[in-house]
Amino acid sequence: MARQGSASPPQTPEEWDGVFTQLKRGYIETIHGLPAFRLVLSPNPTGSLAAIDKMKAFFDGLKDDAFDFLLNHFSVTEEETVHCIIFRKPTAGAVTKGLDTSGKGNSVFELAAHLYPLTTGVCHSSEKGLQNLVHETLSHKSLTLSTLAAEIMTQRGIPSLPPKIFDTARLVVKEGETGDTPRFEDRIDVHDYSAFELVHPAYARQVVLLAGEILKRLDKHEERVRCLDVGTGLGLPLLMLLELCPQLQVTAIEPSPTSFAYLVQNFAGRPEVNPVQMDFLAHRPTEGQPLIVSVGASHHLDTFRFFQHAWSNLADDGFLMVADEFVSPFATPRERAYRLVQHHIGYLVPTLVPVPGEVLDVAEATERILVENLSTQIPLIAFEVSCGLGDAATLRCRRLMEDIAHLNLPETVSYPLLAFSRFHLLELEALLAGLDYEVERKTYPEHFVALGEAAGFSLVEHKRVYGTAGHREWDAGTHVFVFAKGGS
């Protein structure tokens, strides 16, 4: 359970010393096990900004170049009350175990595997050379490497974006092309959703882990390996996967007309990819496939049918590999809603980067409103989640979306750093879709495996790539699973 302190608005240096003592205790307790700590300064309409500046300076003073700072901290004002909130940064455990770093001669994979450990742990002084390499890699032509480098730098307190986040062209899907039942992709700006998801934690590293599992099992003598990609979307994860495993010959299955239009554009002139617009359950290949992959799509499908159809589409010695998001266990609809909020907030807090005043000065008015609302409400939602106050957190999410849903945001962001806010907005939209059971069928990892085994699969590998709640291997977050049709 999270802990909370409170204090009257400090006026003297001695009173501020008392506040700092509470903050230091909160810092120590959070590092050593509390999920969060909050210090509340009672209403002080004239001193809120000064209080926030003092608390920021306090945390800046705790940082040391020789040690990693394993906390996220926020100071926000709501109704003239200042909230200073401390969270532990998410961890995912030793997920690099078993990662094949040879890359089978693929220089992109070898560099990705070399950088991968920086995404999962603290930064030691001996890694300074690697940090320089990360900075250089940010401008790499590889989508995988630049996205991986941007995440590492953002984790280290230097908010960064992969350059290609603004490269994809915008298509217009004609009215009537979305089908009788609108999908989630058809109700949002799918271009923005896909592009801004590049700042989603673990977006590239899940593909690196997936590629590592594929490379361990590919026949190195085959020039081409047939593969089905289920729920390809616009295809950004597939672009990364082909950088890491260029020998794949992919049939990309995507049912949404909106997403499919972008998919065709993104792979124009790429003979190794055959985009097919249809429901995966209707796909009938002429022969068994050696490999089926799915990145971020299984929670949009009827998962048990997905497993059964994948089993019937695979060759006898084939593999099904899934990278996706999973929540903590739940037993009731109310608990499921709480777990969804907990899970999504686990991606939002680490990417809630500070936006300097000079950036807001050049931003559109609606963008400033968006940033202000998100920077205030996301830490408060996260603290309520850490206290187990699921209903309060859910209500705050809904009110937040009501406040920002009407904003007429510009088509492109006024400043690159504002891409993080667009990602937060789209992630909240996805969260509310899941809360209302419109699209998402997120489950928890153990149940996902049980469904796979019930369909005839054997689990041969499982890794948690990124944690959104808890520290255990099977807790919520981004996971990669490898299933075999014919055993291990």
Index terms:
single chain; seven-stranded mixed beta sheet; four-stranded mixed beta sheet; 43% helix; alpha/beta; 11 strands; 488 residues; 17% strand
How many helical elements?
17
Total strands: the figure is: 11
Structural class: alpha/beta
Oligomer: single chain
Radius of gyration: 23 Å
Q: Uncertain segments of ≥5 residues (pLDDT<50)?
A: 171-188
Largest sheet: 7 strands, mixed
Shape: globular
Strand order of the largest sheet: 7-6-5-8-9-11-10
Helical amount: 40-55%
In round numbers, the mean pLDDT is: 84
Name the helix and strand elements from N-terminus to C-terminus, one letter apiece. Answer: EHEHEEHHHHHHEHEHEEHEHHHHHHEE
Q: State the distance separating the first and last CA atoms.
A: 41 Å
* Percent strand: 15-25%
Overview of this structure, please?
The structure is a single chain. This protein has 488 residues and is an alpha/beta fold. It is built from 17 helices and 11 strands. The strands form 2 sheets. The protein has a 7-stranded mixed sheet with strand order 7-6-5-8-9-11-10, with helices on both faces. Strands 1-2-4-3 form a 4-stranded mixed sheet, with helices on both faces. Strand 1, helix 1 and strand 2 form a beta-alpha-beta unit. Helix 5 packs across helix 8, helix 8 packs across helix 9 and helix 12 crosses helix 14. It is globular, with a radius of gyration of 23 Å. About 4% of the residues have low confidence.
